Amino acid sequence: MAEGTVSMAEVETSFQKFAVHGDTKATGKEMNGKNFAKICKDCHIIDGKNVTTTDVDIVFSKVKAKSARVITFEQFNQALIELAPKRFKGKGKEEAVQQLYGLIIGKDPANAGVTKVAKAAAVERLTDSTKYTGSHKERFDDSGKGKGKGGREDIPDTSGYVTAYKGTKDKTLAF
């Protein structure tokens, strides 16, 4: 590979990875606006000074077909060519585009900042069923597993006997 040029196959590989990110039905041939913004953010095309999220959204709208909600790899390239001179001011158009490709190749969608399960001491204490007392304790069996509906509701005894009666129906009455 010649110095300063980037393999389009590598750019397309990154395009496909971002195109399917978060979308189970995506084929990798087209990218939606959200994923276009994500590739720009994760690959540091958006720098907050020269290129902002607004610029990225405008360029996306410009290159996509009128009624379409996605862009193809060719339209993606067109968008990058529009963004390159903004991102790398003072560089020639071709050089700026090559540098932009350099930012994209080999990148995968980052999952930074994705919600993680909270493991705080307070949460741990509140979800420990062995520490429950009173009526809440009855919602769990001896192993700490919840009883479900049976632990939450008073299920009436429909045997036909009065509440205060001490015997059960299988005992005979002795007078």
TrEMBL record:
Residues 135-155 have a biased composition (Basic and acidic residues). Gene3D superfamilies: EF-hand. Pfam families: p25-alpha. The keyword Metal-binding applies. Residues 133-161 are annotated as: Disordered. Keywords: Heme, Iron, Metal-binding. Residues 23-166 form the Cytochrome c domain. InterPro entries: Cyt_c-like_dom (IPR009056), EF-hand-dom_pair (IPR011992), TPP/p25 (IPR008907). Belongs to the TPPP family. PANTHER family: P25 ALPHA-RELATED, TUBULIN POLYMERIZATION-PROMOTING PROTEIN FAMILY MEMBER 2. This is Tubulin polymerization-promoting protein member 3. The gene is TPPP3_1.
